[in-house]
Design brief:
The complex is a heterodimer of chains A (288) and B (125). By secondary structure, chain A is α/β, with parallel strands linked by helices. Chain A contains 10 helices and 14 strands. Chain A has 2 domains: 3-217, 3-Layer(aba) Sandwich (Rossmann fold); 221-283. In chain A, 32% of the residues lie in helices and 30% in strands. In chain A, a hairpin with a 2-residue loop joins β12 and β13 (248-253). The longest helix of chain A has 14 residues, at 132-145. Chain B is mostly helical and 125 residues long. Chain B has 2 domains: 13-76, Winged helix-like DNA-binding domain superfamily/Winged helix DNA-binding domain (Arc Repressor Mutant, subunit A), CATH 1.10.10; 81-124. Helix content of chain B is 61%, strand content 6%. Chain B is built from 5 helices and 2 strands; from the N terminus they run αααββαα. Chain B has helices spanning 13-27, 39-46, 50-62, 81-105, 110-124; strands spanning 66-69, 73-76. The two termini of chain B are 26 Å apart. The chains are: A alpha/beta (288), B mainly alpha (125). Chain A binds chain B through residues 29-31, 169-170, 173-174, 176-177, 179, 195-199, 213-215, 218-219, and chain B through 7, 12-14, 40-41, 43-44, 47-52, 55.
Chain lengths: 288, 125
């Protein structure tokens, strides 16, 4: 399998935050979700891929090319969507589009107009008059109109209503009908990823907790629940976090099958959702 | 192809896909040589992961329900209906054997078991 993005040993330190030895690959032809709680380092990873901030160490290859040495040619093939779309505030959408078009060889004006129509955006509208959702749509239209091979999005669904979130996810699925296209998007809305993502990379406190096929994660991770105190969190095999309330205990495990075989009195077993995983690991009392 | 995915089902999505395609092959809705949608197309239609769909097709291939030809796509495998029915019968037989064994352990008599079966058939009709 070819990789659209290869990240090795990526490091970046800010005051009070450290991205530490981040390593993962994004396979070409698939959708990968980058998940993690707020402040986990998702945006930092995205910015480092785009070389918007300077990395302290590590390597990023996009389409097999070093992202610093080949920055212009790589960027021509990436459709980048910011969490807060940035375009000149006072210009009309059509004016912005013609300015942007000059940067891309593969700009498809007809496709762009088609997308605006589909998203119900008037080309004569001024950018600052758009709602957040409309700005996001415009940004996505720009990314799709230059026939990008990689769509890279930072929290694209945050602040969007369910109707447009669904529309966006459908668009992404349609895009990868072409198996040369790849999507990487960060999100803390796990339900968006639960169905549509092929791969999931989970980042917590600047480190990669796992990077795997989503199905595999959903089939192996689980939550063990019990009333009272029949067992302790550390009795559960591969425990990765827990929550205790007055009269119950919930433990997240990365090996549900092993947990089922363990002698845990009165336990109930469930598959874990991505949200469960994020919640338990994000809470902090993990046995990593 | 009619496939419905339930999010609340305890069965993994790939299993829901394989089960429903199998049922359509066995019922004859899908005939030998019919082409199946491409993996990516089906993933899009069902709004599920490409990997999930790929796995479903791999399972179907392993069990001999479909053939995949590189560059051409997937097709319903050439096999006669009797064979399929036999396969299905075998599955039912295995499940019954399981039920019988369980019943023996619990001391349920054959008559009681038959009564249960009658009841179940009645409910479903």
């Amino acid at each position: 399998m070819d990789n659209a993005i290869e990240i090795k040993g990526l490091r970046k330190e800010y005051k009070g935050f450290r991205l530490d030895d981040v390593t993962f690959d994004v396979p070409q032809g698939y959708i990968m979700g980058l998940i993690g709680p707020n402040g986990a380092g998702k945006t930092t990873v995205v910015k480092l891929i785009m070389n918007l901030i300077r990395r302290d160490a590590g390597e990023v290859r996009v389409f097999g090319l070093d992202n610093l040495r080949h920055e212009p040619e790589i960027k021509a093939r990436i459709g980048f969507v910011y969490d807060v779309p940035r375009f000149p505030e006072d210009l009309r959408l059509e004016t912005i589009a013609s300015a942007v078009a000059a940067f891309y060889d593969k700009w498809d004006a007809a496709r762009f107009m088609g997308l605006l129509e589909e998203f119900q955006l008037s080309p004569r509208k001024v950018f600052k008059k758009l709602s957040h959702g409309m700005k996001m749509k415009f940004s996505l239209a720009v990314a799709l109109a230059h026939d990008a091979d990689l769509i890279l999005m930072d929290e694209p669904t945050a602040g969007l209503d369910p109707v447009f979130r669904f529309e966006l996810l459908t668009k992404l699925r349609a895009l990868i009908q072409d198996e040369r296209k790849t999507v990487l998007f960060s999100s803390h809305i796990t339900s968006d990823l639960e169905r549509v993502a092929d791969f999931v990379t989970f980042i917590h406190k600047g480190r990669v907790v796992f990077s795997a096929a989503k199905d595999e994660v959903l089939e192996t991770w689980g939550v063990v629940r019990a009333a009272g105190d029949g067992f302790r969190p550390e009795d559960v095999p591969d425990a990765r976090g827990f929550r205790r309330t007055e009269n119950s205990l919930e433990v997240l495990t990365s090996d549900l099958a092993a947990a089922r075989r363990a002698p845990l009195s009165g336990a109930v077993f469930d598959k874990a959702s991505l949200e469960n995983i994020m919640f338990f690991i994000g809470k902090g009392n993990a046995h990593a | 192809m009619k496939i419905f995915i339930s999010n609340s089902s305890p069965d993994p999505i790939y299993e829901q896909v394989t089960r429903q395609i199998k049922a359509q092959i066995i019922s004859g809705d899908f005939r030998e040589g019919d082409s199946l949608p491409s993996i990516r197309r089906l993933a899009q239609d069902l709004q599920i992961s490409v990997i999930t769909t790929k796995r479903a097709y791999e399972e179907l291939e392993k069990e001999g329900f479909i053939d995949t030809v590189e560059g051409k796509g997937s097709f319903v495998a050439m096999q006669n209906k009797e064979l399929l029915r036999e396969k299905k019968m075998k599955i039912v037989e295995e499940k019954l054997a399981e039920a019988v064994e369980e019943a023996r352990l619990l001391g349920i008599t054959r008559a009681e078991l038959e009564e249960m079966l009658d009841l179940l058939y009645g409910e479903k009709d």
